[in-house]
Recover the amino acids of this structure.
C-alpha cells in the first residue's frame, strides 16, 4: 500500500475513533458557592460518576484556594500574612506566592492601576456601599498611605513575602477567581475531562470545545441591562475571558456613581458606567487584566493590552454621547458567533 494511502487511512481511523469517543460523552453541570460568588462547572464525561468525581475534586481545590486567598476569612493564609505586616518576611505557600508574584508583575506593567495592597481602601468603600456615605477624608488619606505595590516585597529564593508597613492589607479580589478557575480546569484535566467550562461570576475559563462544536459560546452582557441578551458572542476554546465593571456593585453618592472597583492611585471608586472584557490564555491573566483596564480607562487600558501578545480587550463606556466601544488591535482575531 502506498505511503500516502497508509497515512490517509491512519488519519481516517483516528478521526473515526475520536468521533466515537466524543459521541459517548454526556453534558453535566454543577454549581457551588465559593469566593463570594457561584462557581459553575460544565463538563463532558462518559458517565455521572466520573463527572461528579471530577467536579467534586475541582470544587475542593477552589475551596482550598479560598482558605488561602480570602480577605474575609480571618483564618486565611492571606490574613495571617497581613497580621504580620511591618514585621519580618513570612514564608508562604506556593499558591499564595504564585498569585502575589503575578499580581506584582501586572502592578508594574499597569503602573499601579492593578495593586493588591489596596485592601485598606477597599474596606472603606465596602462600608460606603452599605451606608451610602463617602469615606471621610482623614480615613481615606490614612488608608491611601498604606497602598503601594513597592511596599510588598517577595523573595523567590525563600518563597517569602513581607509587607513593609503595619496596617497594610492585601486584597486579591481582582485575580483570585480567575486563578481558582484555572486550577479547577487543571483538576478536571487530570480526571480525563478534556472539554469543560468553569465560570466564577464574570470570569470564565474553558478547555477543549464541546463535542461536535468549534468552541464554547460565551456571551457578553449589555452594559445597561446585565440580564439582557448578549450583544457579543465569543467562540472560545483553551482560553479565558473576564468582564469587569460596575453593573451589579456600585454606590451613588451626591449624584456620582462610584464602582466597587477602586483605583489604587486615587483611592476612589472608578466613576461612571463602563465594562472591560479581556480574553487571555488564562483566567489569572484575564481576571487581573480586566480589572486593570477598567481602572485605566479606554486609552491607557488599550495601550496595556496592545503591549501584550496574550490578550485582547473590548471596552464599552457610557458617555454623554451614548455608548462608545473601544477594541484592542487583537480583538478582531477573537472568534465570534455570527448572528
Amino acid at each position: 500500500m502506498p505511503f500516502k494511502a497508509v497515512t490517509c487511512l491512519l488519519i481516517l481511523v483516528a478521526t473515526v475513533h475520536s468521533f466515537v469517543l466524543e459521541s459517548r460523552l454526556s453534558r453535566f453541570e454543577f454549581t457551588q458557592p465559593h469566593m463570594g460568588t457561584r462557581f459553575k462547572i460544565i463538563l463532558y464525561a462518559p458517565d455521572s460518576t466520573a463527572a461528579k468525581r471530577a467536579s467534586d475534586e475541582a470544587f475542593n481545590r477552589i475551596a482550598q484556594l479560598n482558605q488561602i486567598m480570602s480577605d474575609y476569612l480571618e483564618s486565611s493564609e492571606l490574613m495571617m500574612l497581613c497580621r504580620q505586616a511591618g514585621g519580618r518576611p513570612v514564608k508562604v505557600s506556593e499558591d499564595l506566592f504564585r498569585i502575589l508574584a503575578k499580581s506584582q508583575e501586572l502592578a508594574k506593567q499597569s503602573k499601579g492601576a492593578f495593586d493588591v495592597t489596596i485592601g485598606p481602601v477597599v474596606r472603606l468603600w465596602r462600608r460606603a456601599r452599605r451606608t451610602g456615605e463617602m469615606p471621610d477624608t482623614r480615613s481615606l488619606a490614612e488608608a491611601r498611605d498604606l497602598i503601594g505595590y513597592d511596599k510588598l516585597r517577595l523573595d523567590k529564593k525563600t518563597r517569602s513575602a513581607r509587607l513593609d508597613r503595619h496596617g497594610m492589607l492585601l486584597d486579591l479580589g481582582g485575580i483570585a477567581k480567575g486563578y481558582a478557575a484555572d486550577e479547577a480546569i487543571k483538576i478536571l484535566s487530570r480526571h480525563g475531562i478534556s472539554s469543560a467550562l468553569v465560570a466564577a461570576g464574570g470570569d470564565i475559563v474553558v478547555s477543549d470545545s464541546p463535542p461536535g462544536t468549534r468552541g464554547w459560546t460565551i456571551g457578553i452582557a449589555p452594559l445597561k441591562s446585565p440580564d439582557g441578551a448578549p450583544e457579543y458572542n465569543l467562540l472560545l476554546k483553551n482560553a479565558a475571558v473576564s468582564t469587569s465593571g460596575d453593573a451589579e456593585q456600585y454606590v451613588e453618592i451626591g449624584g456620582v456613581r462610584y464602582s466597587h472597583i477602586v483605583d489604587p492611585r486615587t483611592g476612589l471608586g472608578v466613576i461612571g458606567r463602563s465594562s472591560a472584557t479581556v480574553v487571555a490564555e488564562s483566567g489569572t491573566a484575564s481576571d487581573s487584566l480586566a480589572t486593570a483596564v477598567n481602572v485605566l480607562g479606554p486609552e491607557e487600558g488599550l495601550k496595556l493590552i496592545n503591549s501584550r501578545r496574550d490578550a485582547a480587550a473590548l471596552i464599552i463606556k457610557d458617555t454623554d454621547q451614548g455608548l462608545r466601544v473601544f477594541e484592542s488591535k487583537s480583538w478582531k482575531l477573537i472568534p465570534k458567533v455570527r448572528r
